[in-house]
Structures are given as structure tokens and as C-alpha cells.
């Protein structure tokens, strides 16, 4: 472990502050989060191997991350059903997403492993470290700070919006409802505006020939309109 008041220690402490938004109390906990299980040593004090890697933190972080993302989606996207919420969460916490996010945040600079830097970046290690880091934030700063960290990194409005339309599940509901209206010579209008409530969100009323057919909500305008379009399509008969 690095000494807090060494140059390297100060650099790491400043990195933690910029990452989580507060000055951590237990720096060694965060240091441990960056140590992959490929690095471990015999303590010679017992017959067992001392656990100096992040595997246990990774286990805890995996559970906390899933719960926090589920909570954020549940509270901020009331119009989405259980199936859609589950799919979005799976995209946000996928190994691919967490690996990319970990590298984007510069975690690779501090990761300790037996892999070369290039091999480490191509592996699952960055994502594992991110989960361990979430656990460290939770243990050091509590649930509220862990939620804040996850909200500004994993479950942002932008990342959630992207996750709504990825892979084989990508469907442009707005284009489909407009096409539906054109076939029937009906006028499709989206009456979308921002509602400044406790959390704030966009509400979109989809009107067909002046009659409201569906209502969609979301933290972004396009998300609200896509949701309104999806609901409208479900109620329409070809």
C-alpha cells in the first residue's frame, strides 16, 4: 500500500476525490479495490494465503451496483415495464460497459495485476476493479455516496437513453408510429414538455388527429417520445 503523504499517495488521494466527490477516510480500502486476484502473497504468519486482492470487494460491489441501478431506473423511469427495466440494467452493468467505463475514468492507471497493461485492458479486469471500487465507496462513504457515484458514472441519463435502443432490441418506435400515421393519412403530433417536479422529467403526449393516444415519460425528451410511441403502437391495430 502507498503512503498517503508520498507523492504517489497524494496523487492517488486526489484521484479518489475527483472520482467520488469527497475525501475518503479509508484509503487502503480503495487501494485494495485496484489489486487483481492474480497478485497475492504468502504472509508466512499462517498456513493460509493472505487475501490482498479485490475479489471479495468485487463480490460486494456487484450486488450493490445492480441494486443501485435498479433503484435509479425504477424511480426515474416510471413508464417502463419490468422487462424493459431489466434489459436496460443488464446493458448498463454488463462486463463490456463496465470495462469501457473503468478505462474511461482512468482506473487502469492504478490497477495492479500480473498481466501486461495491454492484456489487462483487453480483459475483464477493469470491470472487476470498477465493481470493487463501488463496494469501497459504499463501505467508506455509505449508500448515499455510492448511489451518487453510480448515478454520475453508470446510470446517467445519456447511458440509459443509449441502453434503451441497443443490439437486437433497437427499435425506433417514433419512426414506426409516424409511418403508421402516414399509411392512414392521420396527423401524428408529439406534445412534449419538461415537468419541473421533485426530480424533473419530460412528458410527451402523442396525439393522433388531435386526440391523445398515449403518454410517455423520461429524463430526456427523446426517451419520453419513444416511450409514448411504444405505448401507442401497442394500442394500435394494423
Structural features, described:
The protein is mostly helical and 238 residues long. It contains eleven helices and five strands. Helix content is 55%, strand content 12%. The strands form two sheets. The protein has a three-stranded antiparallel beta sheet with strand order 3-4-5. A two-stranded antiparallel ribbon has the order 1-2. Strand 3 (188-195) and strand 4 (201-208) form a beta hairpin. Helix 10 crosses helix 11. The longest helix has 22 residues, at 55-76. The protein starts with 6 loop residues before the first helix and ends with a helix. The model is unreliable at 42-50 (pLDDT under 50).
Describe, in short, the structure shown:
The chain is 55% helix and 12% strand. The chain has helices at residues 7-20, 27-33, 55-76, 82-92, 95-104, 117-122, 125-141, 143-153, 157-163, 173-183, 221-235, and strands spanning 41-42, 49-50, 188-195, 201-208, 211-218.
Amino acid at each position: 500500500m502507498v503512503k498517503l503523504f508520498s507523492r504517489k499517495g497524494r496523487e492517488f488521494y486526489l484521484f479518489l476525490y475527483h472520482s467520488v466527490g469527497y475525501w475518503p477516510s479509508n484509503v487502503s480500502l480503495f487501494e485494495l479495490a485496484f489489486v487483481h486476484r492474480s497478485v497475492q502473497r504468502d504472509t508466512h504468519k499462517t498456513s493460509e494465503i493472505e487475501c490482498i486482492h479485490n475479489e471479495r470487494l468485487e463480490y460486494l460491489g456487484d450486488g450493490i451496483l445492480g441494486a443501485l441501478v435498479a433503484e435509479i431506473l425504477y424511480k426515474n423511469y416510471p413508464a417502463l415495464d419490468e422487462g424493459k427495466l431489466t434489459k436496460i440494467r443488464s446493458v448498463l452493468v454488463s462486463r463490456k460497459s463496465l470495462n469501457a467505463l473503468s478505462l474511461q475514468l482512468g482506473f487502469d492507471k492504478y490497477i495492479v495485476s500480473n498481466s501486461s497493461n495491454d492484456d489487462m485492458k483487453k480483459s475483464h479486469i477493469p470491470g472487476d476493479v470498477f465493481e470493487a471500487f463501488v463496494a469501497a465507496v459504499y463501505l467508506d462513504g455509505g449508500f448515499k455516496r455510492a448511489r451518487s457515484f453510480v448515478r454520475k458514472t453508470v446510470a446517467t441519463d445519456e447511458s440509459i437513453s443509449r441502453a434503451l435502443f441497443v443490439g437486437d432490441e433497437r427499435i425506433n418506435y417514433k419512426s414506426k408510429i409516424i409511418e403508421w400515421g402516414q399509411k392512414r393519412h392521420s396527423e401524428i403530433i408529439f406534445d412534449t414538455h419538461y415537468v419541473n417536479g421533485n426530480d424533473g422529467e419530460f412528458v410527451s403526449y402523442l396525439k393522433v388527429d388531435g386526440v391523445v393516444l398515449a403518454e410517455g415519460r423520461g429524463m430526456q425528451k427523446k426517451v419520453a417520445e419513444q416511450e409514448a410511441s411504444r405505448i401507442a403502437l401497442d394500442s394500435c391495430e394494423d
